[in-house]
User: Fold these one by one.
Assistant:
Number 1:
Amino acid sequence: MVLPGPLLGSARRAIFGSAQSVLWGLKSIKGSCHNFCTAVFKDVTYKELKSLLNSRQITLIDVRERWEIVEYGKIPGSVNIPLDEVGEALQMNPKDFKEKYNEVKPSKSDS
C-alpha cells in the first residue's frame, strides 16, 4: 500500500504529532501513566514504519478519528484508538478492549 504524499504527512502528524497530547492525557489520569509512558519521539519514514510494523517490534496506535480511517484508510498493522479515548482504552480489561476495538489490547511491555 502506498500512501499519497499529503496523506503520509497528515498521518505522521496525526500519529506522532499527537503523541505528547496522548502522554499528557495518560499522565493526567490519576496522576500517572500506568506504565504506558515508554514512547520515544522520533520521526520515521514510511519505509522505516513499514519495516517496524512487519517485524512486530512496535505497536502502532493510530489516534485518528474513525471518520479519518474511513476516508483515508487504515494503516496496516495499527490499532485505531481515537485520541480522546486512549487513556480510558489502555485501562480497559483485555476482553472489553477486544470487544470495543476488535484488536488485542497492547500490553504494558509493548514498544
Number 2:
Amino acid sequence: MLTKELVFGLILLMQACGPLLAETPASKQPNSPGLLQRLAEKTREVKATVQVYGAPVLGFFDTYYEDHIQPVTDSYFQWASSVRSSVWEKIHSTIDNYMPLQAANPTDKPQQN
C-alpha cells in the first residue's frame, strides 16, 4: 500500500515539475562568463557580506561570553584544578607508600610509617 502511494506521489510531482522545467528561458547573453567566473564573483560577494556582518556578531558573542559564560566557567575551572592537584598528590603518595613495590628489591628495607 505504501509503495503505491509513493509511486502515485512521484508521478504527480513529475507532472507538476515537468512544465516548469520546460519553461526555463535560455541564456540571452551570448558572451556570458563561465561558471567558474560566476562562482568566484559570488564567492567574493558572500565573503564581503560575511566580513561586514561578521565583525559585529563576533563582538556581540565575545561580550556575551565575557559577561555570562566566563564567570561561571572560571569557578568550575578553578575547582577542577584544585581537585586535580589534590587527587594527583594522593595518587603519588599512595604509589610511593605502596609496600609490595618497596619490598620487591631485597636490598631495600621497607619504610615504616
Number 3:
Amino acid sequence: AAEETERRMDFYAEPGVSFYVLCPEAACGDNFHVWSESEDCLPFLQLAQDYISSCGKKTLHEILEKVFKSFRPLLGLPDVDDDAFEEYNADVEEEEPEADHQQMGVSQQ
C-alpha cells in the first residue's frame, strides 16, 4: 500500500509482520525512515534503522534488503551472513585436489 501525500509505503508479509517506509522529499535531503506499529517487529528493524542513520545516501532497494535481512528470523528463515558466505567460497576455490586426497588418507603411489 502507498500513501502518495505522506510518501509512505506499507509492507505486509506473514500475519503480524508489517512495517512501513517513509520516503524523503527529493528537495529536502532527509533520510528514509522505517517503523512498524507491531511491537513484535520493532526489535528486528534496528539493523535497518542503524543502516539508514549511517553516513551516505541510501536507496529504497538497499533499505528493503536490510529490512528483509533483519526480518529473516521473524519469518522463520535462516540467518545468512553474506561475509561468511563469501569467505567460505574463497576457501573452497583455493583448495587443491591433491590436498583433498592426502586428507582422506589416499596414498598416491
Number 4:
Amino acid sequence: MGTKMADLDSPPKLSGVQLPSEGVGGGRCSEISAELIRSLTELQELEAVYERLCGEEKVVERELDALLEQQNTIESKMVTLHRMGTASIRPFRELMTSWT
C-alpha cells in the first residue's frame, strides 16, 4: 500500500512532524521512512522531504561535532582512572603474591 497525497498531511508523515530539536540525539533516526520517499511522486513533495532531511543532517552534524570535541577529554579521564585503579590495587597485589 503506497502513501497517498492525503497521508502526507497527517501525522506522523511529512508535515505533521517537526524537525528534531538540537540535542535530541540518542540514536534517533529520521521519521521519514524509505517507503515514504519511494512513494512520493510530486516534485514539491520530494523537495519538502529533501529539505527536512537536510535539516536533520545539520542537527546530527552538530551533535557529532560536540562529541568529537569531547573525545580527547574523555580519553584522558579514562587513562587517569585506569592509572588510579592500577595504583590503588598494587599494594594488595604485592601482598597476595608474597603469601604464595
